[in-house]
Design goal:
The complex is a heterodimer of chains A (244) and B (74). With 244 residues, chain A is α/β, with parallel strands linked by helices. Chain A has nine helices and eight strands. Chain A has a seven-stranded mixed β-sheet with strand order 3-2-4-5-7-6-8, with helices on both faces. In chain A, helix 7 links the parallel strand 6 and strand 7. In chain A, helix 1 packs across helix 7. Chain B has one domain: Alpha-Beta Plaits, CATH 3.30.70.20. The chains are: A alpha/beta (244), B alpha+beta (74).
């Protein structure tokens, strides 16, 4: 009887422990990207743009070329790299504070130009790195450091659905929203990330995958409760599936 | 026939694997790891399916899955 390894550490992920909290979705998303890069055999020509946010140290975890960008400017840096080196596969990995708040300008204009880039957008409805403040994607009623009584539409507006906004732009090729709340959904998330990378390889234009990701620390719940909260609350506001 | 290997030093104790193991073969190891966390451990005596649900949901890439392969079993 021979046991063969069927699941293990992807080559494009360094064999180190991450700084993320227990139950954080970033670790899953990093692994999925590394698996996709390995499976598409593009490791030698991939360039990642790390964001500002909890994933600011992503370049310590992926074993391919990475660049850092100022807060929100990941897509501007990615545009520059891709235009000068079109043979590279360039993707950005950004959180909601990065992509949908300070970087909204760069996000909308890069999508509107239809740059041949891949975006992995981590939506955890909160600012993680700075201490759990309200993000544009925070749900109504959700308590954060800056909305201690819960987000109110009258005061703080509604959760920003950046994927639906971008889907209206004619130059955008592909947008899908996925989640990490169960192994089945993680498999679907990987399929979406792979599709987004394939679009770039085939020069088809701007692709974005929005990933609903747990942040147990700043949702102030246990990791398994955080997965339940995605399923019960977050998906109602941010429905899963292909948007464009 | 299958089994998993858990990197107990990397485990942060989120316990996602315990909630998704269809056979209930993952438990908590009361012996702390170097992080000061009670990591998860594999219950060797059960019958693991090799479904890899635990490894797929693990945020810290702590789990390797080994499965009996027909190809190598000839």
């Amino acid at each position: 009887m021979v046991l063969r390894k069927i699941y293990g550490h992807p080559k494009s992920l360094r064999n180190v422990s991450t700084h993320y909290c227990a139950g954080c979705g970033h670790g899953i998303a990093h692994r999925l990207i590394a698996e996709v890069v390995d499976e598409l055999d593009i490791r030698e020509r991939t360039v990642a743009i790390a964001p500002v946010g909890c994933a600011v140290l992503a370049y310590d975890y992926w074993d391919f070329d990475c660049s850092e960008a100022a807060h929100g400017r990941a897509l501007a840096v990615a545009t520059g790299i891709k235009q000068v080196r079109p043979q590279n596969i360039v993707f950005t990995y950004q959180g909601d504070g990065d992509l949908a708040a300070i970087g909204t300008n760069e996000t909308i204009h890069t999508a509107n130009r239809g740059e041949n880039l891949t975006v992995v957008f981590i939506n955890n409805a909160v600012y993680g790195m700075t201490g759990g403040q309200m993000a544009p994607t925070t749900l109504l009623g959700q308590r954060t450091a800056t909305t201690p009584k819960g987000r109110e539409a009258r005061l703080q507006g509604y959760p920003l659905k950046i994927s639906e906004l971008l889907a209206q732009l004619p130059a955008v090729k592909y947008i899908e929203r996925v989640s990490l709340h169960s192994p089945q959904e993680v498999v679907k998330a990987k399929r979406a990330i792979k599709e987004a990378f394939k679009n770039q390889i085939n020069n088809e234009g701007f692709s974005l995958v929005e990933i609903l990701s747990p942040c147990p620390t700043y949702w102030q719940m246990s990791p398994s409760k955080a997965l339940d909260w995605i399923r019960e609350a977050m998906i109602k506001e941010f429905p899963l599936g292909r948007i464009k | 026939m299958a089994k998993i290997n858990i990197d107990r030093e990397r485990c942060k104790g989120c316990l996602f694997c315990i909630s998704f193991c269809p056979k209930g073969l993952i438990g908590i190891d009361k012996r702390l790891n170097r992080r000061g966390v009670e990591p998860v451990k594999f219950k060797e005596q059960g019958e693991c399916l090799g479904c890899a649900m635990c490894a797929i949901i693990c945020p810290d890439c702590c789990i390797e899955v080994y499965k009996n392969s027909q190809k190598f079993n000839v």
